[in-house]
Amino acid sequence: MKRFYRWWWVLLAMIVLAGCASKIPHLVVPEFDKRGIHLIAVMPVLGVSDSKTADMLRGKLVEELYFKGYPKIPFKVVDEAMAGGNQTPQQAGQRLKVDGVLIPTIHQSGTIHRIIYASTTVDLELELRSVKTGERLWRARYQTVKRSYGFTRRQRELKTTLVYEEAIYEVVTRALETLPDAKDTVGS
Length: 188
Known about the structure:
Blueprint: H1 2-21, E1 26-28, E2 40-42, H2 51-67, H3 75-81, H4 89-96, E3 100-113, E4 117-130, E5 136-149, H5 153-176
Parallel strand pairs: 2-3
Antiparallel strand pairs: 1-5, 3-4, 4-5
Helix pairs in contact: 2-5
């Protein structure tokens, strides 16, 4: 009977840990829906020098925001508003006449190769700021680790490319799950 109770406690602990692990740390200001955020510009990615990765990340952000009800603003337009290099995201947002600016930051991104597997990590933080006030309205951070296996380094590198794109999509999708959907402005 003691053995049964021990397993029951182990099972209960695993359920509790699984429930805690699935939560994404995020911050949303009270009454977010009353802040009038309808247009969001996705700023250039901080913390990454690879333009291919930055474009893939921003493209996924624009798409996911669209599915949450926010209109698409091509990042080429945002980059033009940021031209000159000394524009802050808030100033660029004012030039674009948007309500909020989304600032993506990659804290960690890369792959470590081991003997028969490669471990790819992507750690993304997203921050939405009001263009009018500069106030942080929403913030989320999510990290994922993907593994790929292969007997040769070439096999691992090929698989890592696919896994990296999958990791980018996962961190964007999971982080944006915590952003409130856009309010329907057609009826208002």
